[in-house]
Write a sequence for this structure.
Protein backbone atom coordinates (compact mmCIF):
# COMPACT_ATOMS: atom_id res chain seq x y z
CA UNK A 1 0.00 0.00 0.00
CA UNK A 2 1.07 3.61 -0.43
CA UNK A 3 2.29 5.08 2.86
CA UNK A 4 1.19 8.66 3.57
CA UNK A 5 3.78 11.21 4.60
CA UNK A 6 5.17 11.37 8.10
CA UNK A 7 4.18 14.44 10.13
CA UNK A 8 6.44 15.56 12.98
CA UNK A 9 5.91 18.25 15.58
CA UNK A 10 8.59 20.89 15.11
CA UNK A 11 9.30 22.60 18.44
CA UNK A 12 10.69 25.58 16.55
CA UNK A 13 7.52 26.29 14.56
CA UNK A 14 5.20 24.95 17.31
CA UNK A 15 3.23 22.91 14.79
CA UNK A 16 3.15 19.59 12.97
CA UNK A 17 5.00 19.63 9.67
CA UNK A 18 5.34 17.13 6.85
CA UNK A 19 8.82 15.66 7.19
CA UNK A 20 10.92 16.48 4.14
CA UNK A 21 14.61 15.56 4.45
CA UNK A 22 17.22 17.98 3.15
CA UNK A 23 18.86 15.38 0.93
CA UNK A 24 16.47 12.48 0.32
CA UNK A 25 16.72 9.57 0.81
CA UNK A 26 19.33 10.43 3.48
CA UNK A 27 18.35 11.68 6.94
CA UNK A 28 20.62 13.25 9.51
CA UNK A 29 19.41 12.72 13.09
CA UNK A 30 21.21 14.08 16.16
CA UNK A 31 20.03 13.33 19.71
CA UNK A 32 21.54 14.54 22.97
CA UNK A 33 22.74 11.53 24.93
CA UNK A 34 23.59 11.14 28.61
CA UNK A 35 26.17 12.75 30.83
CA UNK A 36 27.83 9.62 32.16
CA UNK A 37 28.50 10.29 35.82
CA UNK A 38 25.86 7.95 37.25
CA UNK A 39 23.50 5.11 36.40
CA UNK A 40 20.79 5.69 33.81
CA UNK A 41 17.33 6.29 35.26
CA UNK A 42 13.79 6.26 33.88
CA UNK A 43 14.22 9.82 32.62
CA UNK A 44 17.09 8.64 30.41
CA UNK A 45 14.98 5.81 29.04
CA UNK A 46 12.31 8.09 27.57
CA UNK A 47 14.43 10.02 25.02
CA UNK A 48 16.34 6.85 24.18
CA UNK A 49 13.10 4.98 23.39
CA UNK A 50 11.41 8.00 21.72
CA UNK A 51 14.19 8.50 19.21
CA UNK A 52 14.73 4.77 18.83
CA UNK A 53 11.15 4.67 17.53
CA UNK A 54 11.89 7.55 15.16
CA UNK A 55 15.11 5.85 13.99
CA UNK A 56 13.31 2.56 13.41
CA UNK A 57 10.37 4.15 11.59
CA UNK A 58 12.48 6.34 9.31
CA UNK A 59 14.47 3.27 8.30
CA UNK A 60 11.25 1.35 7.74
CA UNK A 61 10.04 4.11 5.42
CA UNK A 62 13.16 3.57 3.32
CA UNK A 63 15.39 6.41 4.51
CA UNK A 64 19.12 5.96 5.01
CA UNK A 65 19.54 7.39 8.49
CA UNK A 66 22.75 8.58 10.09
CA UNK A 67 21.83 8.65 13.76
CA UNK A 68 24.30 10.46 16.02
CA UNK A 69 23.83 10.28 19.81
CA UNK A 70 26.56 11.87 21.86
CA UNK A 71 28.12 10.99 25.19
CA UNK A 72 28.85 14.01 27.41
CA UNK A 73 32.05 13.33 29.31
CA UNK A 74 33.39 16.85 29.92
CA UNK A 75 32.13 20.39 30.46
CA UNK A 76 28.77 19.67 32.10
CA UNK A 77 29.04 21.59 35.36
CA UNK A 78 27.06 20.99 38.53
CA UNK A 79 24.48 23.74 38.06
CA UNK A 80 23.98 23.07 34.32
CA UNK A 81 25.50 26.49 33.58
CA UNK A 82 29.02 27.94 33.84
CA UNK A 83 29.83 27.63 37.51
CA UNK A 84 30.57 24.77 39.87
CA UNK A 85 32.50 21.57 39.45
CA UNK A 86 32.45 19.32 36.40
CA UNK A 87 29.97 16.52 37.17
CA UNK A 88 32.31 13.75 36.02
CA UNK A 89 35.38 15.30 37.67
CA UNK A 90 33.44 15.55 40.93
CA UNK A 91 32.46 11.88 40.74
CA UNK A 92 36.09 10.95 39.99
CA UNK A 93 37.34 12.99 42.96
CA UNK A 94 34.84 11.38 45.32
CA UNK A 95 35.66 7.87 44.07
CA UNK A 96 39.41 8.61 43.86
CA UNK A 97 39.66 7.39 40.27
CA UNK A 98 40.51 8.94 36.91
CA UNK A 99 37.61 10.82 35.23
CA UNK A 100 37.74 8.51 32.21
CA UNK A 101 37.30 5.53 34.50
CA UNK A 102 34.00 7.08 35.59
CA UNK A 103 33.10 7.71 31.96
CA UNK A 104 33.87 4.17 30.84
CA UNK A 105 32.14 2.53 33.80
CA UNK A 106 28.85 4.40 33.41
CA UNK A 107 28.94 4.33 29.60
CA UNK A 108 29.16 0.54 29.74
CA UNK A 109 26.25 0.41 32.18
CA UNK A 110 24.21 2.79 30.01
CA UNK A 111 24.79 0.56 26.97
CA UNK A 112 23.75 -2.50 28.96
CA UNK A 113 20.51 -0.77 29.98
CA UNK A 114 19.83 0.31 26.40
CA UNK A 115 20.37 -3.24 25.16
CA UNK A 116 17.89 -4.51 27.75
CA UNK A 117 15.33 -1.93 26.54
CA UNK A 118 15.95 -3.10 22.95
CA UNK A 119 17.15 0.36 21.93
CA UNK A 120 19.11 0.15 18.68
CA UNK A 121 22.66 1.43 18.70
CA UNK A 122 23.14 4.79 16.94
CA UNK A 123 25.20 5.05 13.78
CA UNK A 124 27.82 7.14 15.62
CA UNK A 125 28.23 7.75 19.36
CA UNK A 126 30.88 10.48 19.75
CA UNK A 127 32.31 11.70 23.05
CA UNK A 128 32.79 15.37 23.82
CA UNK A 129 36.35 14.79 25.05
CA UNK A 130 37.27 13.26 21.70
CA UNK A 131 36.27 16.43 19.81
CA UNK A 132 38.16 19.21 21.58
CA UNK A 133 39.82 20.31 18.31
CA UNK A 134 36.46 20.67 16.55
CA UNK A 135 35.06 22.65 19.47
CA UNK A 136 38.06 24.98 19.54
CA UNK A 137 37.71 25.56 15.79
CA UNK A 138 34.05 26.52 16.20
CA UNK A 139 34.99 28.95 18.97
CA UNK A 140 37.46 30.62 16.60
CA UNK A 141 34.74 30.97 13.96
CA UNK A 142 32.33 32.53 16.46
CA UNK A 143 35.02 34.93 17.70
CA UNK A 144 35.91 35.86 14.13
CA UNK A 145 32.28 36.71 13.41
CA UNK A 146 32.11 38.94 16.48
CA UNK A 147 29.64 36.97 18.63
CA UNK A 148 31.96 36.02 21.48
CA UNK A 149 34.51 37.69 23.73
CA UNK A 150 37.44 36.69 25.92
CA UNK A 151 37.47 37.36 29.64
CA UNK A 152 40.41 36.26 31.78
CA UNK A 153 41.16 33.21 29.64
CA UNK A 154 37.53 32.16 29.24
CA UNK A 155 35.43 32.68 26.09
CA UNK A 156 31.77 33.64 26.42
CA UNK A 157 29.02 33.85 23.83
CA UNK A 158 27.72 37.42 23.56
CA UNK A 159 23.95 36.87 23.58
CA UNK A 160 23.06 40.58 23.34
CA UNK A 161 25.35 41.14 20.34
CA UNK A 162 24.00 38.03 18.64
CA UNK A 163 20.43 39.19 19.26
CA UNK A 164 21.11 42.36 17.29
CA UNK A 165 21.47 40.25 14.13
CA UNK A 166 19.51 37.08 14.88
CA UNK A 167 16.54 36.41 17.17
CA UNK A 168 17.81 34.74 20.33
CA UNK A 169 15.16 32.72 22.16
CA UNK A 170 13.15 31.60 19.13
CA UNK A 171 13.08 27.98 20.32
CA UNK A 172 12.15 28.60 23.95
CA UNK A 173 10.33 31.93 23.64
CA UNK A 174 12.85 33.78 25.84
CA UNK A 175 13.10 37.53 25.21
CA UNK A 176 16.55 39.09 25.54
CA UNK A 177 15.22 42.56 26.41
CA UNK A 178 13.47 41.10 29.44
CA UNK A 179 16.62 39.24 30.42
CA UNK A 180 18.62 42.45 30.10
CA UNK A 181 16.13 44.39 32.22
CA UNK A 182 16.33 41.91 35.06
CA UNK A 183 20.09 41.33 35.01
CA UNK A 184 21.63 44.68 34.00
CA UNK A 185 22.71 45.44 37.56
CA UNK A 186 25.05 42.42 37.43
CA UNK A 187 27.07 43.78 34.49
CA UNK A 188 30.69 44.42 35.38
CA UNK A 189 30.47 42.47 38.63
CA UNK A 190 31.78 39.27 37.10
CA UNK A 191 33.74 38.19 34.03
CA UNK A 192 30.60 37.93 31.86
CA UNK A 193 29.09 41.02 30.22
CA UNK A 194 25.64 39.67 31.09
CA UNK A 195 24.68 36.81 33.36
CA UNK A 196 22.88 35.00 30.52
CA UNK A 197 26.00 34.89 28.33
CA UNK A 198 27.24 31.30 28.27
CA UNK A 199 30.69 29.76 28.19
CA UNK A 200 32.24 28.45 25.02
CA UNK A 201 35.57 27.84 26.79
CA UNK A 202 36.31 27.93 30.50
CA UNK A 203 39.71 28.62 31.98
CA UNK A 204 40.46 25.73 34.31
CA UNK A 205 41.12 26.43 37.95
CA UNK A 206 44.35 24.89 39.33
CA UNK A 207 42.49 21.93 40.85
CA UNK A 208 40.45 21.18 37.70
CA UNK A 209 41.46 17.74 36.40
CA UNK A 210 40.03 17.76 32.86
CA UNK A 211 41.83 20.44 30.86
CA UNK A 212 43.27 21.01 27.39
CA UNK A 213 45.67 23.64 26.01
CA UNK A 214 44.39 26.50 23.85
CA UNK A 215 45.49 29.99 22.80
CA UNK A 216 43.12 31.40 25.44
CA UNK A 217 44.05 29.23 28.43
CA UNK A 218 44.38 25.69 29.66
CA UNK A 219 40.73 24.88 30.01
CA UNK A 220 37.75 22.93 28.78
CA UNK A 221 34.76 23.52 26.46
CA UNK A 222 31.35 24.66 27.59
CA UNK A 223 28.62 22.04 27.76
CA UNK A 224 26.50 23.50 24.94
CA UNK A 225 29.34 23.62 22.43
CA UNK A 226 29.90 19.88 22.06
CA UNK A 227 26.62 19.21 20.28
CA UNK A 228 27.08 22.05 17.79
CA UNK A 229 30.60 20.88 16.97
CA UNK A 230 29.85 17.17 16.73
CA UNK A 231 26.61 17.54 14.77
CA UNK A 232 28.50 19.71 12.27
CA UNK A 233 31.32 17.16 11.98
CA UNK A 234 29.09 14.16 11.36
CA UNK A 235 25.94 15.63 9.78
CA UNK A 236 27.16 18.84 8.14
CA UNK A 237 26.31 22.49 8.60
CA UNK A 238 22.66 21.68 7.83
CA UNK A 239 20.85 18.53 8.88
CA UNK A 240 17.32 17.26 9.36
CA UNK A 241 16.34 16.46 12.95
CA UNK A 242 17.72 17.36 16.36
CA UNK A 243 16.10 15.64 19.33
CA UNK A 244 16.28 15.45 23.09
CA UNK A 245 14.37 15.87 26.30
CA UNK A 246 12.21 18.94 26.89
CA UNK A 247 14.48 19.91 29.79
CA UNK A 248 17.25 20.60 27.25
CA UNK A 249 15.20 23.12 25.29
CA UNK A 250 16.63 25.99 27.34
CA UNK A 251 19.43 26.76 27.69
CA UNK A 252 21.13 23.85 25.92
CA UNK A 253 19.31 23.71 22.59
CA UNK A 254 18.74 27.46 22.48
CA UNK A 255 22.50 27.90 22.86
CA UNK A 256 23.14 25.33 20.12
CA UNK A 257 21.04 27.35 17.67
CA UNK A 258 22.93 30.52 18.55
CA UNK A 259 26.36 28.88 18.32
CA UNK A 260 25.73 27.20 14.97
CA UNK A 261 24.14 30.33 13.48
CA UNK A 262 27.00 32.51 14.74
CA UNK A 263 29.59 30.13 13.28
CA UNK A 264 27.92 29.30 9.94
CA UNK A 265 25.72 32.32 9.28
CA UNK A 266 22.56 30.19 9.21
CA UNK A 267 20.68 27.69 11.38
CA UNK A 268 21.70 24.06 11.17
CA UNK A 269 18.56 22.17 12.15
CA UNK A 270 15.41 21.84 10.07
CA UNK A 271 13.21 20.08 12.67
CA UNK A 272 13.51 20.17 16.46
CA UNK A 273 11.78 17.35 18.36
CA UNK A 274 11.49 17.10 22.16
CA UNK A 275 10.08 14.37 24.35
CA UNK A 276 8.30 15.43 27.51
CA UNK A 277 9.27 14.57 31.06
CA UNK A 278 8.62 11.59 33.29
CA UNK A 279 7.25 12.76 36.61
CA UNK A 280 6.81 11.25 40.03
CA UNK A 281 4.00 12.70 42.09
CA UNK A 282 3.80 15.49 39.51
CA UNK A 283 7.47 16.46 39.89
CA UNK A 284 10.15 15.90 37.24
CA UNK A 285 12.18 12.77 37.88
CA UNK A 286 15.91 13.46 37.74
CA UNK A 287 19.29 13.20 39.43
CA UNK A 288 19.36 16.85 40.45
CA UNK A 289 16.11 16.44 42.41
CA UNK A 290 17.14 13.19 44.05
CA UNK A 291 13.84 11.47 43.22
CA UNK A 292 15.03 9.24 40.43
CA UNK A 293 14.89 5.45 40.15
CA UNK A 294 17.67 3.85 38.12
CA UNK A 295 16.88 1.35 35.41
CA UNK A 296 18.80 -1.35 37.28
CA UNK A 297 16.62 -0.68 40.32
CA UNK A 298 13.52 -1.13 38.14
CA UNK A 299 14.88 -4.39 36.75
CA UNK A 300 15.82 -5.69 40.23
CA UNK A 301 13.01 -4.12 42.28
CA UNK A 302 15.38 -2.82 44.98
CA UNK A 303 14.06 0.71 45.53
CA UNK A 304 11.75 1.92 48.28
CA UNK A 305 9.27 3.36 45.75
CA UNK A 306 8.91 0.05 43.89
CA UNK A 307 6.52 -2.70 44.87
CA UNK A 308 8.59 -5.21 42.90
CA UNK A 309 10.85 -5.61 39.89
CA UNK A 310 9.71 -4.71 36.37
CA UNK A 311 11.11 -6.12 33.15
CA UNK A 312 12.77 -4.00 30.49
CA UNK A 313 9.92 -4.63 28.04
CA UNK A 314 7.40 -3.50 30.66
CA UNK A 315 9.35 -0.24 30.99
CA UNK A 316 9.46 0.17 27.20
CA UNK A 317 5.74 -0.54 26.84
CA UNK A 318 4.92 1.84 29.72
CA UNK A 319 6.77 4.65 27.91
CA UNK A 320 5.21 3.88 24.52
CA UNK A 321 1.68 3.96 25.92
CA UNK A 322 1.95 7.73 26.28
CA UNK A 323 2.64 10.08 23.37
CA UNK A 324 6.22 11.27 23.48
CA UNK A 325 5.15 14.94 23.81
CA UNK A 326 2.92 14.30 26.83
CA UNK A 327 4.06 14.00 30.43
CA UNK A 328 4.19 10.52 31.89
CA UNK A 329 3.68 10.04 35.62
CA UNK A 330 5.31 7.10 37.35
CA UNK A 331 3.36 4.82 39.66
CA UNK A 332 3.49 1.14 40.51
CA UNK A 333 -0.14 0.84 39.46
CA UNK A 334 0.65 2.23 35.99
CA UNK A 335 3.61 -0.12 35.57
CA UNK A 336 1.60 -3.13 36.69
CA UNK A 337 -1.17 -2.21 34.26
CA UNK A 338 1.46 -1.94 31.50
CA UNK A 339 2.88 -5.32 32.48
CA UNK A 340 -0.53 -7.00 32.26
CA UNK A 341 -1.41 -5.18 29.05
CA UNK A 342 1.84 -6.17 27.36
CA UNK A 343 1.45 -9.79 28.43
CA UNK A 344 -2.12 -9.87 27.10
CA UNK A 345 -1.04 -8.30 23.82
CA UNK A 346 1.93 -10.62 23.28
CA UNK A 347 -0.14 -13.69 24.16
CA UNK A 348 -2.79 -12.71 21.64
CA UNK A 349 -0.23 -12.16 18.91
CA UNK A 350 1.33 -15.56 19.63
CA UNK A 351 -2.06 -17.11 18.85
CA UNK A 352 -1.44 -16.36 15.16
CA UNK A 353 0.69 -19.51 14.94
CA UNK A 354 -2.37 -21.57 15.91
CA UNK A 355 -4.67 -20.10 13.27
CA UNK A 356 -5.56 -22.44 10.42
CA UNK A 357 -6.20 -20.87 7.00
CA UNK A 358 -9.68 -20.90 5.50
CA UNK A 359 -11.20 -20.53 2.06
CA UNK A 360 -12.61 -17.09 2.90
CA UNK A 361 -11.54 -14.01 4.86
CA UNK A 362 -13.85 -12.26 7.31
CA UNK A 363 -11.68 -9.11 7.32
CA UNK A 364 -8.68 -7.68 5.51
CA UNK A 365 -5.29 -7.07 7.19
CA UNK A 366 -5.04 -3.98 4.96
CA UNK A 367 -7.65 -2.29 7.16
CA UNK A 368 -5.33 -2.49 10.15
CA UNK A 369 -2.28 -1.66 8.08
CA UNK A 370 -3.87 1.66 7.10
CA UNK A 371 -4.70 2.42 10.74
CA UNK A 372 -1.18 1.52 11.91
CA UNK A 373 0.51 3.78 9.37
CA UNK A 374 -1.93 6.61 10.07
CA UNK A 375 -1.00 6.46 13.77
CA UNK A 376 2.75 6.42 13.17
CA UNK A 377 2.58 9.13 10.52
CA UNK A 378 0.72 11.36 12.96
CA UNK A 379 3.81 12.44 14.89
CA UNK A 380 4.71 8.92 16.03
CA UNK A 381 1.44 8.36 17.87
CA UNK A 382 2.40 5.10 19.57
CA UNK A 383 -0.53 5.05 22.05
CA UNK A 384 -3.00 5.08 19.15
CA UNK A 385 -1.00 2.37 17.38
CA UNK A 386 -1.06 0.26 20.54
CA UNK A 387 -4.84 0.76 20.85
CA UNK A 388 -5.23 -0.56 17.29
CA UNK A 389 -3.00 -3.52 18.16
CA UNK A 390 -5.23 -4.34 21.12
CA UNK A 391 -8.26 -4.19 18.85
CA UNK A 392 -6.49 -6.50 16.42
CA UNK A 393 -5.65 -8.89 19.28
CA UNK A 394 -9.38 -9.49 19.78
CA UNK A 395 -9.70 -10.48 16.12
CA UNK A 396 -6.68 -12.77 16.45
CA UNK A 397 -8.26 -14.52 19.44
CA UNK A 398 -11.40 -14.97 17.35
CA UNK A 399 -9.31 -16.42 14.54
CA UNK A 400 -7.63 -18.85 16.94
CA UNK A 401 -11.01 -19.92 18.31
CA UNK A 402 -12.42 -20.44 14.82
CA UNK A 403 -15.01 -17.69 15.14
CA UNK A 404 -13.40 -15.69 12.31
CA UNK A 405 -11.43 -16.82 9.29
CA UNK A 406 -8.62 -15.72 6.95
CA UNK A 407 -7.26 -17.18 3.75
CA UNK A 408 -3.63 -18.32 3.70
CA UNK A 409 -2.64 -15.17 1.80
CA UNK A 410 -4.34 -12.86 4.30
CA UNK A 411 -3.02 -14.86 7.25
CA UNK A 412 0.56 -14.52 5.96
CA UNK A 413 -0.02 -10.79 5.42
CA UNK A 414 -1.34 -10.41 8.97
CA UNK A 415 1.67 -12.21 10.46
CA UNK A 416 4.02 -9.93 8.54
CA UNK A 417 2.03 -6.86 9.62
CA UNK A 418 2.19 -7.80 13.31
CA UNK A 419 5.91 -8.54 13.10
CA UNK A 420 6.56 -5.26 11.31
CA UNK A 421 4.78 -2.97 13.76
CA UNK A 422 5.03 -4.83 17.05
CA UNK A 423 8.63 -6.00 16.81
CA UNK A 424 10.45 -4.00 14.15
CA UNK A 425 8.90 -0.56 14.76
CA UNK A 426 7.76 -0.60 18.40
CA UNK A 427 10.72 -2.79 19.34
CA UNK A 428 8.70 -5.04 21.65
CA UNK A 429 9.72 -8.63 22.10
CA UNK A 430 8.76 -11.64 24.17
CA UNK A 431 10.87 -11.93 27.30
CA UNK A 432 11.77 -15.16 28.98
CA UNK A 433 10.29 -15.20 32.44
CA UNK A 434 12.97 -15.07 35.08
CA UNK A 435 13.12 -18.17 37.23
CA UNK A 436 13.07 -17.40 40.93
CA UNK A 437 16.11 -19.57 41.67
CA UNK A 438 16.05 -18.74 45.36
CA UNK A 439 12.48 -19.94 45.73
CA UNK A 440 13.19 -23.04 43.61
CA UNK A 441 16.29 -23.89 45.61
CA UNK A 442 14.46 -23.50 48.89
CA UNK A 443 11.73 -25.83 47.66
CA UNK A 444 14.25 -28.49 46.64
CA UNK A 445 16.11 -28.19 49.93
CA UNK A 446 12.93 -28.48 51.95
CA UNK A 447 12.06 -31.65 50.02
CA UNK A 448 15.48 -33.18 50.72
CA UNK A 449 15.32 -32.22 54.38
CA UNK A 450 11.86 -33.76 54.65
CA UNK A 451 13.19 -37.04 53.14
CA UNK A 452 16.07 -36.93 55.63
CA UNK A 453 13.67 -36.22 58.51
CA UNK A 454 11.48 -39.19 57.55
CA UNK A 455 14.60 -41.39 57.29
CA UNK A 456 15.57 -40.39 60.83
CA UNK A 457 12.06 -41.15 62.07
CA UNK A 458 12.45 -44.66 60.63
CA UNK A 459 15.95 -44.89 62.17
CA UNK A 460 17.44 -45.11 58.67
CA UNK A 461 20.61 -43.37 59.82
CA UNK A 462 22.59 -44.36 56.72
CA UNK A 463 20.20 -42.48 54.39
CA UNK A 464 19.94 -39.49 56.74
CA UNK A 465 23.74 -39.20 57.02
CA UNK A 466 24.21 -39.66 53.27
CA UNK A 467 21.84 -36.75 52.48
CA UNK A 468 23.58 -34.52 55.05
CA UNK A 469 27.12 -35.44 53.88
CA UNK A 470 26.39 -34.96 50.18
CA UNK A 471 24.70 -31.60 50.83
CA UNK A 472 27.72 -30.51 52.87
CA UNK A 473 30.00 -31.57 50.02
CA UNK A 474 27.97 -29.26 47.73
CA UNK A 475 28.44 -26.35 50.14
CA UNK A 476 25.23 -26.54 52.16
CA UNK A 477 25.34 -26.53 55.94
CA UNK A 478 22.53 -28.43 57.72
CA UNK A 479 21.52 -27.53 61.26
CA UNK A 480 19.17 -29.88 63.08
CA UNK A 481 16.49 -28.21 65.23
CA UNK A 482 13.71 -29.48 67.46
CA UNK A 483 11.23 -28.81 64.61
CA UNK A 484 13.30 -30.47 61.87
CA UNK A 485 16.32 -28.86 60.16
CA UNK A 486 17.52 -25.58 58.63
CA UNK A 487 19.96 -25.01 55.80
CA UNK A 488 22.33 -22.28 54.69
CA UNK A 489 24.61 -21.98 51.65
CA UNK A 490 28.18 -21.69 52.87
Amino acid sequence: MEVSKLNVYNTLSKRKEVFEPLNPPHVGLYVCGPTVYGDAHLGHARPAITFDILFRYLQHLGYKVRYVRNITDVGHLENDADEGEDKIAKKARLEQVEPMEVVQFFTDRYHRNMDALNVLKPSIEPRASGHIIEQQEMIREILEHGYAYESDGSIYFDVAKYNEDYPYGKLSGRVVDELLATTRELAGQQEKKNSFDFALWKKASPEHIMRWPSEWSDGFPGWHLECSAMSTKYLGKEFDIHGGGLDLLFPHHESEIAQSTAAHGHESVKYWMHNNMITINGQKMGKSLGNFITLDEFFQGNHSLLDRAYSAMTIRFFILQAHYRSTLDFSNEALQASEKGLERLMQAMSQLDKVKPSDVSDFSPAEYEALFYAAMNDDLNTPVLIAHLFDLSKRINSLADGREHLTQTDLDALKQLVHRFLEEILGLKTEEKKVDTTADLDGIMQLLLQVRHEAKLHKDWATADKIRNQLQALGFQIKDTKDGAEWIKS
Q: What stands out?
A: The first strand starts at residue 7 and ends at 10. The chain has three domains: 7-275, 280-425, 437-489. Residues 280-425 form a domain with the Four Helix Bundle (Hemerythrin (Met), subunit A) fold (CATH 1.20.120.640). The first helix runs from residue 42 to 60.
